[in-house]
Amino acid sequence: MSDKRDASERFRRGREALQAIMGEGQIDRLDAAYAEVAPDIVEFLVSFAFGDLYARPALKPRDRQLATIAALTALGTAQPQLRSHIKAGLAAGLTREEIVEVLMQMAVYAGFPAALNGLAAAKEVFAEAAKG
């Protein structure tokens, strides 16, 4: 981690929010994934998305995850991120039923292909969770 990141209040808040949502080691995984191609993207992601937005108190973590799951499903192009946020949603207290309902709701607004792809991602995450 760079000294700049260590000194940034936004990054600190973001790291705490990210760890609360997705567990320990997520920043290390992001650093490993992007170090060769765009090492600064991790700082931007953690500082802005998690330090500025996810750390805001108006929404509970489970509600943020529900909104994120809906948005990622509607995008239809973010399957890895969708799976991560479905997993985080379960950890934040969402039930499988709530996740399935929001995915099905996306058929109205994003189309059946997006909803079906979201349900396929949920099925994978649910199966992984059942394995332990």
Give the uncertain stretches in residue-range form: none
Helix content: over 70%
> What structural class results from the helix and strand content?
mainly alpha
Distance between the termini: 31 Å
How would you classify the quaternary structure? single chain
Label the overall shape: globular
Named CATH architecture of the largest domain: Up-down Bundle
CATH fold-level name of the largest domain: AhpD-like
| SSE pattern | HHHHHHHH
Q: Which homologous superfamily in CATH is the superfamily of the largest domain?
A: AhpD-like
Query: How much is the radius of gyration in Å?
Result: 15 Å
Number of strands: 0
Give the overall average pLDDT: 92
Main beta sheet: none
Number of domains: 2
The CATH class label of the largest domain is Mainly Alpha
Beta-strand level of the residues, as a percent range?
A: under 5%
